[in-house]
Amino acid sequence: MSATNNRCLLYNQAVMPYLDAWTWQQELQAQRIKNPSLDDALILLEHFPVYTLGRGATKEFLNFDIDENTYELHRIERGGEVTYHCPGQLVGYPILNLQRHRQDLHWYLRQLEEVLIRVLAIYKLQGERIPSLTGVWLEGRKVGAIGIKVTRWITMHGFSLNVCPDMKGFERIVPCGISDKPVASLTEWIPGITCKQVRIHVANCFAQVFNLELIEQPPYNLDQS
C-alpha cells in the first residue's frame, strides 16, 4: 500500500516533440531503476501530432500506408495498439516506483483510470470503465487512453485525456484497436475547455489517488539531459 506523503516531482511542460519526451522518460526511469530512493515524478504535456504503436501493435489498425512516412509514427515499449497525440490532448507520464505503492499492474491501470474519472467528476461528467478494456469513456465514447511500461516496478508512459484536440487525426487509425467505440473530446460536453484549465485538476487528482505530495519543478530543459 502507498505510504503517506511520498513526494512526486511535477513537471508542467508545454507542447513537446514526442521523441524528446520519450527520451526524457527513459532517462527518468533508468535513474530510478539505478536508485529506487529517488522521488516519483509526473510529467504533464502536450505533443505535436504523432502516432505511436505499442510493442505488440499490428499495422491493420492504421488507415494509411506506414511506408509512406506521411505522418510521424513510432513503435514504443508500452502495451496497447495504435494511438494518436496532438495539441489539445493532455498527456501524463508518471514515473512511479510501485514498490512504494502496490506491486500490481492491474491495480495501477485502474488507478490511472480513477485519476481521469475524478477529473471528469469535477466537471459533473460521469466517466466510465468498460470491463475487459483499459481507458475511460463518456456516454460510450472514449476520452481517456492508457498505455504503460513497467521495468523493475518503475513505470513509464501513462495516460492521455482528449480535452480539445483536432479529432481529424483519429480518423486515420482505429484508436487502441477498438473499432466499435468512437473517441471523443471534452469540448463536446464543455465548449471552450482548454488543457491549461484541466492540468491543475489532473495533477491534484493524481496526487489524491496515489497519496502523493506534488513538488512543482521548473520547466525541463532538454539540453540538460
TrEMBL record:
Substrate binds at residues 78-85, 145-147, 158-160. GO terms for molecular function: lipoyl(octanoyl) transferase activity. GO terms for biological process: protein lipoylation. Keywords: Acyltransferase, Cytoplasm, Transferase. The record marks 142 as: Lowers pKa of active site Cys. Belongs to the LipB family. PANTHER family: LIPOYLTRANSFERASE 2, MITOCHONDRIAL-RELATED, OCTANOYLTRANSFERASE. This is Octanoyltransferase. It comes from Plectonema cf. radiosum LEGE 06105. The gene is lipB.
